[in-house]
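Continuing from the previous page of notes. For each protein in this section, the sequence appears first, followed by its structure tokens. Read the first protein now.
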Amino acid sequence: MEIYLDANATTPVLPQARDAALSVMADAFGNPSSIHGSGLKARARLDEVRAIARRVLGAPAGRLLFTSGATEGIQTAVLSALTDLRRRRDAGQAIPPRLLFGATEHKAVPEALKHWNALLGLGLDVEAIPVGLDGRHDLAWLRANAPSAGLVCTMAANNETGVISDLDGIADALRGSGALWLVDGVQALGKLPLQLGERAIDYAPFSGHKLYAPKGIGMLYVREGTPFTPLLAGGGQEGALRSGTENMAGIAALGAVLDALERGGVFASLGELLDRRQRLADALRQAFPGVVFNAPFELSLPTTLNVSVPGLGAKLLLDLFDAAGLRVSGGSACGAAKAAPSYVLQAMGLPAWQAASAVRLSFGAADTEATIQEACRRLRACGEALRATCQIPAPDETPQSPELLTRFTVDGACCYVVADAASRRCAVIDPLPELTGTLAQWMRCRGLTLVAILDTHSHGDHASSAQALRDAIPEGLAQEARVESVDALGWPREAEVIALGMHRLSRLATPGHTEDAVAYLLHAGGDLVASFVGDTVMPGALGRSDFAQSAPSAFGASLKTLERNVGPEGLLLSGHDYDDRFATTLAIECAAQPLLDGVLKGRFSADAFAMEKATLERDLAPTEYQTMACGARIDCARAAERVELDVEALQAMLGQGDGPKPVLVDVREAYEARLSPTSELAPEPVPLSVLINALPRWRALPADTPVVFFCRSGNRSAQAARALRRLGHGQAWSLAGGLALWPTAQPASHFDAFAI
């Protein structure tokens, strides 16, 4: 059974709520605007739910209307406040010039402010209220700036961190300012005693699906006398405050949840919730020594934990937890698909690594004790899986055998480790500052001796981290890799080759991207295995040559030198891979890049090539990671061809009696596969980090042999399939939706153990 720890994103529907919705749809389906018996019954149910909601919210007066959810409530509140400001301005009154929102607000709030500010032609300044390291609003700043604000928007509790706002302090800071006050109450519903009638809150939107009601139902509280403009006009429902036939099934379901909250006995008490959070925190500490909690417990909701683990990125943790059947998120669910640090943690001023690696665990007040116990067990199992696969230190590590080539990436930049399993000697090529701790742990766990730390060129976007890596692993550093023994790029002085057991590295000068650019050629016996070309050639691009340290006139000759030494089909491993292609060849790049093809075939002189290249590189925009682009990407669009293979198609392929059998490849990392084995598929395990080792073998398969990759969600497997197709094997596929959609035994209901 999956353990759902993402309640701040949404919750399952409470059985009572489900029953109430079904009852309304089946037996009490009348329109509450109708005056016959069925309509009157529906109206009575609607009024009953509104009365319960008023009691739960402590709002005996003021307007309380049902909406489709918090986003609609926020839009309605912002429209109402800003329409009143425009009315006052049109009447010749001076209006405050600013709209303020908490820097950690859900994006729905600032986006609504910007939208209606522009649409109504107000032109007001939309500004963020700073927060401190504890995530709470800077009340001194707010007190000083509130008099110039027409609307102030804050949260009752933050959706990412669980930090509870000091509503009384905010109210005091706003006193006498004249500003209207919107409080996003979504995460507070059922968790905090808001007592809206006792506070000067003008607008408070809520969403039912955050508290065990269905999606599509919410509420908006509007204080008595506060300006109001309907967002929806029409039939005049909800007292003409929100037109449209009421969602009676959703309202009935929400009413059942609020009734359960009011009666007690369904939701855990505050003391129980605090105890459960503590046990989850203890399990996290046991699993990940050094884990950091990003919000103070004493100021946070008892159901939310926001954590970062030094040396482990959010993507790794999310994949790890998901493999263990723990459903968590990397911050707000609305931004979970975006590869960006948490803006909430950035606004709090936390270090960049914490903001970039944070994950959120949020449980529900209706979760069972058994759910929390199992969650703690699985968290500890996650730590054990990482220790067993060299991701974090273990007290009794047994050295593991390394693959020949391992690739690490950071925002499109690539770092490689070449490791000879027999001799336990390795070299690191193009180390990245963000990877120092990861690389040191990776080598220690495998019992490797580091004989070289090599850069392919002097980098323009970061300083070499070679010395930091030397300092991090002094016990595993060979004499020839020490700083006094190497040149500026890390090559041992006087050495012709670097010996790595049965493998050896040689170097080839390739000036162009920089004056000192080199390629490193990896041989096994007399065979060329791969060439590390830095940014001389990248998948879909040539390295830029407009830096002060570049040698543009030498670039064309270097490409010809590279061709003579590696040939058109030699595997090239680049310093940047913005489009997840893993490897390339000169033949592939010539087909994609006319400029490269032209210089290698003699159609461009060195000077003409440099001029054409300079034109391509003019005004290069930053990458999607907001880093310096290290080349003008010609063939940068991801392949449009469909590589996804649905479950039924794969099952048919596996069951066919004739034709080549598909090669099944699991590209998940070892720690994921350990937690979630796939014995029924019996795949070949080739984690994405070591995919480059298997690419030559798969390229050599018969053209009609399918290679089907899979992972957790289908994203990484699609990368692998597109990479292999680009390298020439047309029958490369990705299991659509990944293992998340692969048929398994039916999971138990989230509420199976509920005592209702």
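Done with the first. The second protein uses the same format. Note its length before scrolling.
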Amino acid sequence: MADSLVIVESPAKAKTIGKYLGNKYIVKASMGHIRDLPKSQIGVEVKHNFEPKYITIRGKGSVLKELKDASKRVKHIYLAADPDREGEAIAWHLAHYLELEQTEPCRVVFNEITKQAVKDAFKTPRPINLDLVNAQQARRILDRLVGYKISPLLWKKVKKGLSAGRVQSVAVKLINDRENEIKEFVPEEYWSITVRLTSGKSTFEAKYYGSGGDKRELKNEAEVNEVLAAIGAKTAFIVADVKEKERQRNPSAPFITSTLQQEAARKLNFRASKTMSVAQQLYEGIDIGSEGTVGLITYMRTDSTRISPVAQDEAKEYILGKYGADYVPETPRVYTKKATNAQDAHEAVRPSSVQREPDSLKEFLSRDQLRLYKLIWERFVASQMSSAVLDTMSVDIAAGDATFRATGQKMKFAGFTKVYVEGNDDGTTEEEKMLPPLAQGDKLKAEEIEPKQHFTQPPPRYSESRLVRALEELGIGRPSTYAPTLETVQKRGYVALEEKKFIPTELGELVIQLMEEFFPEILNIEFTAQMEEELDNVEEGKEDWVKVLDSFYTSFEKRLEFAEEEMKEVEIQDEVSDEVCEKCGSPMVYKMGRFGKFLACSGFPDCRNTKPIVKDIGVTCPKCKEGRVVERRSKKGRVFFGCDKYPECDFVSWDRPVEEPCPACGSLLVIKNSRSGQTVQCTQCEFKEEAAETETEIAD
């Protein structure tokens, strides 16, 4: 007969935990929060110490009745929501509803849903941590005050449906500021000179370094011609200096929430929200056959890179058995907290058992679950392995007064790279190339000297991974806020995704201008980061949450009063296109949606006709030979290419077609993107070549 009730957030988590606890425990799910602030009103008594007015969430009646009935049949009640502020708040609301004493040791927390971790947690239940609850309450009330006070103002002055959030406003400002940087960027010309040299049977490249022993940047063609004239046709290329040394590369730390989101975006093409959704499934438990339902990873909302000694020992044993003693570092790796405000409350994101290799779980996991688990597993294992060792070589080559430099490297010991190498935002990888054996005084033959013109590039637009990294580095928000923030700024129409990069919309630019004018502190990065630090201090019991809110609201209220009086109404004018609506004859106007611009009828709401903006890429349709290939977007915003004669012609391609046919078989050529660059490939045969260079070259 069961004598204990355990309440978690989700049915999946309940199923996993129930299996470990046995018949003496009833495990039920609250289905997330049971109480929240009302949606129809601000729900905060500002003049009464910011007292929140919580109400039962609509639709939770049957769940609450079930929990209440179950609580009457047991001696003990345990609240096992997630081990963070949000989970503590859920537990607090449940305790309030079930009328538990404040000192009751009812709170159970575990970082991973494994049999041992769960059983250990139930040996040491504790009272609800009110500091954690107050930190969550303070954040919720702070965001409610900002959102519910500024949003109605924007509705009145700009348009209905707008919102202004503390973290989302800073995110939009970052995107907006980056776009302004790009618009104001003035490219600067610079040049390079590359010489292809041979030593015996080996050929390698060296780049111009400088003249007269000093490094020199080549700014224009005249300077390039000066260097080329000084070298002349008969100048000998002689090895002046050779430096060889060993270099170590250390593994990256195991994942925290933000780095997991960044790497999943780079390597798996996952949106932040998808990463967190799939990670939640892996954390709560998957049925893996004979073992039953098991939580495969530790808690995924964390800003700590800490690893438990037990997990480190298990990893060491695995690496020793799989790869040998050389791949185990002399001392276990300890990673410092990346951010000064990291809470370090949990471990890093890691597999609950390193023995569960990704390949052994293929039949039990969906494709997305397996890919994310593999990423987490490999990153963790690599983080506990020895450094990689590379042999590097740097050679200076004299050609008269000019110096050319060649570098090379070769892997001497793979170390952690045998398992995993961290990605980067531009998709490039560190190239392994070694120079031939060279010694000082060696004479080399110059096969070709190639000058090339370049221009400096503006800073890149933010991708999801870049934006998450920026928010994290600036101390804006917390791990759990990044995914919903990115979703919100798109839904509100403040930013759009074009080619997986964020661009601000006209609406987004306007809102930021108004916020900067009337609520500068909300957009002030230092101020917002300071607020995060104060909320962290509340969690640690160092500050009173009411005082934190009062300090903010005193100046905020004055700003509101000023904005109410001084902010002028703004009407956003739609840009009219040359196209006419085929349904009603009205002009079509440009609108900005989540995935970029589209055309909409200016007769809205009487006419709701919309259509995508198609771009002719200059290629004849390879199927019907009559239509033109145009760039389109899928409903999820992904770019694809199709015939403009659709539906008469159904040609489509995810890869950009090329006008010229394959020289080998005459079939369609397409441009493929990879981490090493673009290639032109045939869709039918093995033909493949690098995509054409776009930089300007000049003759020797």
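What the second structure shows: The longest helix spans residues 130-157. The longest strand covers residues 237-249. We return to this in next week's lecture.
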